[in-house]
Amino acid sequence: MAMAIIPFFFLLTFLILSLFLSNSQTIAESLSSEPSAYDMLEKYNFPRGILPEGVTDYLLQSDGYFEVYFKSDCEFKVAKKYLARYDQKISGYIDTGTLKNLNGISVKVLFIWIGVSEVDRASETEINFYLGPILASFGVSSFEDSPKCRCSLDRSNTTVVI
C-alpha cells in the first residue's frame, strides 16, 4: 500500500508544479503586456526618443503626474550638439503634447547646467524645450530613436557607470 502512495505523491507534485508554472507564465505575460514608458510617450504625441534607453520602471497617475526611473543618471547628446542629463528619477506632468513641471532633466549651456522645465509639441515637425526663459526648438526627427547613455563618472565613489 505504501508503494502505491509514492507514485500518487509524485503525480500530485507534478500537477501542482505544472499549475504553478502555467500561472507564472500567465502572470509574466500579463505584466509584459503593460505599455512601456516609451509607448506612453507616443500615446501623448511625443516621440520615443525623448527618453533615453534604459527605463527600468515608470509611474503614471490619472492626473498626468509621472515618474520615470533609470538604473543611474544618464547623459547623452541632443541633436548631436547639446549635452543632456536625466537623473535616475525624473518626474513631471504629462498631457497631450505637453510635459510640465519637469524635475530631473537638465541641459548644459556653455559651462552651466540648466533645468528643463517644460517640453511641448509645437507642431508635427517641431518640439520646444523650455530652460527657464530660454526656448530651444528641435525637429521631431532628432528624437526618432532613444539615445544611449554615455559613460559618466559617478562622483560619489569614482567608479564608471554605464
From TrEMBL:
Xref: Pfam families: DUF538
Gene3D superfamilies recorded: At5g01610-like
InterPro entries for the chain: At5g01610-like, DUF538
Keywords of the record: Signal
Record's signal peptide: 1-24
Entry protein name: Uncharacterized protein
Organism per entry: Rhynchospora breviuscula
